[in-house]
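Query structure, 341 tokens:
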């Protein structure tokens, strides 16, 4: 299976640069994974595809304002650091630009010294480990000094940082938003509850892999990054009940999907657990947890388009993407949505 098998042509003008002011008015392409049939709706129509007793699972991770611009204490060179993963205490894994300037012992200062980062380890691909030095509460300092780490294909400044958070974001720790969830409003979630559809939350902190393309020719040789996840007992019990009642589990986003499938692969049942997952889902994978998926349109040759192809079939996905391009859907993080039923 070749990485090039998951390529498609996307005009630059279809890459959404700004979010919609009304989140649930995004367009929704509905794909029947069994028949390949396609419908064109709006996101608020998703409620019509959910039935009483089904369970909608969302990722409640919250994006850190983790992009920091500072300067080397020794030379005053401008350095950009993106906090990716909290290793332990005040030690963080970070993506650095320009990385060649950062060696073990280098100190980068932010906000006139309100926050400092001392390099303690050098790794490949621009990754460094830093110890953060500060007084007070780190997250409050990041709120003052940091900005949202928007993906590299978004070139416009985000006027309101909250548009890159889901309305239910709760657990701080992500380097990127779980973007399928950006389409939900509190009002839509309330309407879904009133239909007696269960709503529950798992956590997966989105990390480095979001910014890394697949660079190998053979898909099976790709090494996935690892990300922290958590599932509560309350959620695991609800998911067990959903399966027992032969109702559907609808996953919101590829990140949520990775949690659900990781738990089932590891324990062969839903249970309270946490850990690190590097699950890589591509065609040939048999889903054990997820029945349906709400997702965005993903980058060509990415692990995410491979995941949705595993659920709906590569031919169905590439056909749907071609139709989405022809009909000028908006793509990627701030773009339109797809429902694989």
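Result returned for the query:
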């Amino acid at each position: 299976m070749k990485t090039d098998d998951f390529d498609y042509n996307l005009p630059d003008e279809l890459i959404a640069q700004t979010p919609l002011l009304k989140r649930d008015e995004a367009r929704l392409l509905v794909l029947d994974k069994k028949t390949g049939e396609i419908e064109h709706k709006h996101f608020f129509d998703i409620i019509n595809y959910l039935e009483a007793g089904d369970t909608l699972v969302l990722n409640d991770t919250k994006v850190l304002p983790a992009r920091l611009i500072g300067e080397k204490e020794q030379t005053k060179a401008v350095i950009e650091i993106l906090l990716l993963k909290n290793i332990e205490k005040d030690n963080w894994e970070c993506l650095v630009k320009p990385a060649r300037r950062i060696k073990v012992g280098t100190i980068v200062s932010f906000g006139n010294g309100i926050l400092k980062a001392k390099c303690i380890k050098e790794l490949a691909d621009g990754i460094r480990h830093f110890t953060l030095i500060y007084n007070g509460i780190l997250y409050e300092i990041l709120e003052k000094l940091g900005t949202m780490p928007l993906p590299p294909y978004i070139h416009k400044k985000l006027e309101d940082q909250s548009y890159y958070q889901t309305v239910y974001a709760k657990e701080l720790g992500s380097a990127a938003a779980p973007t399928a969830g950006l389409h939900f409003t509190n009002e839509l979630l309330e309407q879904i509850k009133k239909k007696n559809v269960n709503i529950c939350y798992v956590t997966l902190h989105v990390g480095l892999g979001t910014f890394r393309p697949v660079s190998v020719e053979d898909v099976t040789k790709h090494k996935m990054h690892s990300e922290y996840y958590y599932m509560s007992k309350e959620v695991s019990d609800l998911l067990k009940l959903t399966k027992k009642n032969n109702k559907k589990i609808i996953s919101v986003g590829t990140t949520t999907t990775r949690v659900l499938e990781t738990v089932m692969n590891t324990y062969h049942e839903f249970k309270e657990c946490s850990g690190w997952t590097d699950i890589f889902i591509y065609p040939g994978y048999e889903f054990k947890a997820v029945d349906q998926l709400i997702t965005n349109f993903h980058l060509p040759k990415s692990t995410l388009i491979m995941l949705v192809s595993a659920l709906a079939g590569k031919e169905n996905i590439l056909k749907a993407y071609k139709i989405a391009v022809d009909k000028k859907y908006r793509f990627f993080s701030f773009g339109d949505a797809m429902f694989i039923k």
